[in-house]
Known about the structure:
By secondary structure, chain A is an alpha/beta fold. Among the domains of chain A are: 7-70 and 94-166, HUPs (Rossmann fold); 181-298 and 340-360, Argininosuccinate synthetase, chain A, domain 2, CATH 3.90.1260.10.
Amino acid sequence: xxxxxxxxxxxxxxxxxxxxxxxxxxxxxxxxxxxxxxxxxxxxxxxxxxxxxxxxxxxxxxxxxxxxxxxxxxxxxxxxxxxxxxxxxxxxxxxxxxxxxxxxxxxxxxxxxxxxxxxxxxxxxxxxxxxxxxxxxxxxxxxxxxxxxxxxxxxxxxxxxxxxxxxxxxxxxxxxxxxxxxxxxxxxxxxxxxxxxxxxxxxxxxxxxxxxxxxxxxxxxxxxxxxxxxxxxxxxxxxxxxxxxxxxxxxxxxxxxxxxxxxxxxxxxxxxxxxxxxxxxxxxxxxxxxxxxxxxxxxxxxxxxxxxxxxxxxxxxxxxxxxxxxxxxxxxxxxxxxxxxxxxxxxxxxxxxxxxxxxxxxxxxxxxxxxxxxxxxxxxxxxxxxxxxxxxxxxxxxxxxxxx
Amino acid sequence: xxxxxxxxxxxxxxxxxxxxxxxxxxxxxxxxxxxxxxxxxxxxxxxxxxxxxxxxxxxxxxxxxxxxxxxxxxxxxxxxxxxxxxxxxxxxxxxxxxxxxxxxxxxxxxxxxxxxxxxxxxxxxxxxxxxxxxxxxxxxxxxxxxxxxxxxxxxxxxxxxxxxxxxxxxxxxxxxxxxxxxxxxxxxxxxxxxxxxxxxxxxxxxxxxxxxxxxxxxxxxxxxxxxxxxxxxxxxxxxxxxxxxxxxxxxxxxxxxxxxxxxxxxxxxxxxxxxxxxxxxxxxxxxxxxxxxxxxxxxxxxxxxxxxxxxxxxxxxxxxxxxxxxxxxxxxxxxxxxxxxxxxxxxxxxxxxxxxxxxxxxxxxxxxxxxxxxxxxxxxxxxxxxxxxxxxxxxxxxxxxxxx
Amino acid sequence: xxxxxxxxxxxxxxxxxxxxxxxxxxxxxxxxxxxxxxxxxxxxxxxxxxxxxxxxxxxxxxxxxxxxxxxxxxxxxxxxxxxxxxxxxxxxxxxxxxxxxxxxxxxxxxxxxxxxxxxxxxxxxxxxxxxxxxxxxxxxxxxxxxxxxxxxxxxxxxxxxxxxxxxxxxxxxxxxxxxxxxxxxxxxxxxxxxxxxxxxxxxxxxxxxxxxxxxxxxxxxxxxxxxxxxxxxxxxxxxxxxxxxxxxxxxxxxxxxxxxxxxxxxxxxxxxxxxxxxxxxxxxxxxxxxxxxxxxxxxxxxxxxxxxxxxxxxxxxxxxxxxxxxxxxxxxxxxxxxxxxxxxxxxxxxxxxxxxxxxxxxxxxxxxxxxxxxxxxxxxxxxxxxxxxxxxxxxxxxxxxxxx
Amino acid sequence: xxxxxxxxxxxxxxxxxxxxxxxxxxxxxxxxxxxxxxxxxxxxxxxxxxxxxxxxxxxxxxxxxxxxxxxxxxxxxxxxxxxxxxxxxxxxxxxxxxxxxxxxxxxxxxxxxxxxxxxxxxxxxxxxxxxxxxxxxxxxxxxxxxxxxxxxxxxxxxxxxxxxxxxxxxxxxxxxxxxxxxxxxxxxxxxxxxxxxxxxxxxxxxxxxxxxxxxxxxxxxxxxxxxxxxxxxxxxxxxxxxxxxxxxxxxxxxxxxxxxxxxxxxxxxxxxxxxxxxxxxxxxxxxxxxxxxxxxxxxxxxxxxxxxxxxxxxxxxxxxxxxxxxxxxxxxxxxxxxxxxxxxxxxxxxxxxxxxxxxxxxxxxxxxxxxxxxxxxxxxxxxxxxxxxxxxxxxxxxxxxxxx
Lengths: 404, 404, 404, 404
């Protein structure tokens, strides 16, 4: 039973797949299509999407092309890094964090253009469909969602190409097609499929597109200093940068030094395990640096509570629950801790390694006087006995009870 | 008010500090001293401690020298690594995990020798005093504890040396004394003090005793394969190894390839922040490998629950609560998950990097068929719509309620 | 696209709805039907289901009628009560905990009879469909599931009655039909629908079927004593009882004294809120008693950890994840703590109140000597100063840092 | 080694014990004493403390008597009830929540009067010393703390009376001295000691001072309606009330109907178990009502997250960490959820029972249409199949893997 749709906002990359979707939407739903193409740092020109959309019959006023890089880093990437978020101990959530922003802009554009539906190009077995659609529904519960990959029968490369040909969609040929399914934004690039489908296969060197290998990175280390304000990086080597500039520059350092490659098997929200390779050069540096500045500025127990809440926070983002009350609740807790997270972190970058070599802060809670074995102004060594005795009291009582 | 003590079991390294303690115990408490010296892989001969103890008047039958390396790795290190334990996002708990074993053997030897007290050489501002003493009291609530560093007034290097001289304790001179306070066992070596007291100072290269620097590590990567059984590593490159052999061998690989250096500011249980540098070569490899084998053999939700419980588990160990009901409770949960954690992990070691390049298991839950965008035997893409709709239902209802 | 089914095991109550399902399965799927009717303490005869099934054409060897009360209480209710499980602060999970057992037996009977499918009578908007089906699939991933309420178009009372009439299914008339949707087992009875659909309506007194109202309960309190062994109740007023006997007897006490009524709005797993009223007389007594015996036998930190894990454990059961690795992992942790949970709890029952008035245990950790303000054998009041100072040390350091 | 003190602010009740402390401070420390007496609803006149203090030689300008009831309820009790805080499943934290406020005012008065020390009358084995002193040090890291009960040797009733006599401190005789150690404020009254020291002893009826027994409560139920705004109660039966007025009125209802008695064995922070009896009449009503209004206004997952964080939040308050970064972090998360917690709860009070009989809200998320088994506007029953299948996918995959 087909849904009735008047106008649909499509997340449109300009590539073959979303061009096919565009056409398919026009045909299947007989509706007006609005295209939305965002620059979130994927490293490809977005402007060409306009020409393509026009050629496919989209009205000029229905073509939206936007540079969202600053918003992406400021309102999505940075808040997430305040939490030191890592999924399953390894993954920096590069794809996950970009979807909510796309979803949000689609819903806004739907409102702007009076569209009653949105559509995306995510497949039916992945996480991204969930992330897009949870975002859509959280922001507009009445929006109609069209997920072509779950509806159509174009579920093979051949059928897609045949459809493209039949509808005059240009199939660009740039040498050989990559064997990998990829996704990129300012935070990362990902790879799936191809030989990765056997988790015993090591990725081929030429798969990696952003970073040099550690082997090919410079033989000389490089030092950088990141300055933090309220938990966010604001200056690099003393130069103030906007959020997107910061991530862009850190990416350059990371790419150069072979930093941020990752090869994992992860658990998808829809239920299966999947192999993924990732490059997150700047993010890998930021995570290390943020932990370092927190290490001298956060209270111990708030740091530990952050660590305990983090896996759940990361899971929410991975699963697509960015626009949920529970994510906002956790964010409120996390942000509450970042007021004093100010200062500098000095890092050494070398062949895949990000090594913290210094940290300082106007709000530092570190004082070497308190650590040495000598007496100091705040610590009476005799106190340790009472501290230990009372912490052990339950053991003492239990020991006696058990003996009886 | 001095405690009455007849016989005390001292954790005795044979070094200057614990020799001074030995003498001081004899003088101050006028009691018999039993020395206990353990080989837990610290990399120093333990047998010389016998001669030293004899010279200080300890009776032969009161000298205990034991090789605890296998017990250490099997019953302490491995269970901890099953949990992927990391303190404050960075520290592999090398010192923390060794203390409970020492404490346990001291209590056992106290029972064996009829001693009514135990003593250790940990200072009054550190974590180790807590770890030793919580262990003692958990295992024998009636034991008397003597913590010389909190009692005596020998709280400077000069006073200690003067005491040693006055009592004929030999002060060995091996070139210049290290400026760092160090601790070592089969899992790690640690450094505190000296120039580290300023957290903006990068450690000097010659501080590190175990690993070569990444810069000086071989230019050629090396591949190894670790085999897991029930969550523990049991074979290396196909060769079966005992727990201590395994960690010893992995340490060699790590040291050679510049793996496992760490430089952090951490929060002590007694309340202050302290700078520490650590080398955990084999442990760093094991952590990465264990996560990799878990990635294909653990159920998603048990993996996530492990991740959420981990910071608390690591904190318990750091704080000295190994012998606590709550640690055992968490261990029961963790161990319950490891039954299927079997298989091989292939790793590439290169200049500080531990790179997972393959994993396989007879119990693997990974199946590439389920990940691709094509139909498969267990996954109906149409199911995703229902999955998403019902996960979003609360947002839909809340969206409507909020609009009103 | 209808699934091919040869033989299906139906959870059959003998009532109108599941009789209609029985017939519908025969017609729609043209398959053999096996009926499974369990006595889990719902308070109705199960034997009459045999006659009804025979009349509907079920072969005698395909009729399974079983008394599962002991298994239900021993292997499901008691383990859950060891955790003090409560969903959303109020609900004792009476329905949730019975579903996995039914599911398990259906799968076992399917194996026994060579059936390839199972079916249940739970509706398409409730939690029970999830609980049944997650259970089925956890125990047999290949089983075919038929959920008639989601498939057929008999979605109104009239259509059902018409179907019944058309197929000769007897419609018993016992006075007027209850306006409530109900479920019962040895642990509880539940009510939904009718006037409850307005959460401002107070339930009518005649809705409640098990308990008298507190107003109508005896004016004289009654005292009982429950004896615990390893966290489970084993004797009542000194008389040893099997698990099902225990719950049956406690139910009698609860019913008599107006104990265990509950009226809540809860969150269903499928996404909406729903109003439910419950009577859990014996369970309400057990929860209070179990907490009381734990209060003198559990270590503080294991008790606290149990409390922190409980909401998650309860949610797993509510959502239908009884047969999941994560529930088993939590159960392992919980059960680890119950070894010393032995002793007696004395309770006063009076007009809806369950009042703990005494508890004692051979393993008690309570000792009045340790609580008074006088000196005792294990506690030195001077220790408190050190305990407080070191717990406050981070505040002291932070206070100084902030002042600067 | 006695601390040097010029001026000390004493938490002064005007009773015998703190009068002895007052005198003892003057004698032992030879310092000026400032008395601080607060009305936090303990139910005793505070003004008489002025006369007593004057008689003991306190200068008029050093006597502070303040009514803190509104601040107490608004800034301490209400925020805590937003979290539904309960310690160890039972205790409503009546004593714990009052200590931070006293500590805060003492520190403020110390600043005002130029005092360099504070003192309290809490004993050396209880929780209150910790709560006071953590509060002091969190608010002024340099304050000197005098805890007479840990310092002096007046550790028996006889010694105290002898001291009082010797120093002309009037010992009022109001009939026989209560055998219980008590504490009261607007939220609760507590009892310890006496026959309670045997946890098998039922409290005597005449111990309870606030509430009638359920047996003696009215035979007729009474209905009340509480109106919530942003998670706090703001009106009772339609009448707007200030926070302290609200709690006062609810206390009256509770006392009349025998509501809020509690008899438990709890775990003290300093390590031992202790028996306590409590009356929290208004608080018991508020807890039930708050959960009820949340049940129709909170999103499911934020409600669940609150439930999971609650035990830790309650523990922080119990242990004295009100003024800690981690409590504030949790409070930020909790408060974030309360924006929509608005509406009315109707309750029936009867002989110890608080029964929720209705709840309504302008922000309600409950809609009966979504619960019934019929189709509705937001829920497609077919969606349930996909929802269940994908939630079960990991079981399906694991089932297959295990079979192999």
